[in-house]
Known about the structure:
The protein is α+β, with helices and mostly antiparallel strands. The chain is built from one helix and four strands.
Amino acid sequence: MARNKKGFTLIELLIVVVIIGILAAIAIPKFANTKEKAYIASMKSDLRNLITAQEAYFSDNNSSYAASTTAMGTAYRSSTGVTVTIGGVTATGWAATATHGSTTKTCTLTLGNGATNEGEPICQ
Length: 124
């Protein structure tokens, strides 16, 4: 009587598990880098939106900039997890910093006051 053997051997199953482990080890760091890029993009977007809100405030309030996001009186809100802080407000410009709770990087923006990259968020 001939026996009909069906199924995988233990060695074949172990090889498949090792291959899946190698693929996971390659993919997981790439996902972590992608998440940080998303946080940075969110901070940059919030700083660009702040420019628009500050210009609206400037035109409505006798050519002066808001000293904080709460003083604007507009519906400016940063994205979830992003904290935007305005500082260095003068009659000719202002600066702002954005941070996110899930990354150590910060983004800054300077408008006026002799800025070299005026209006462009710089992240470090």
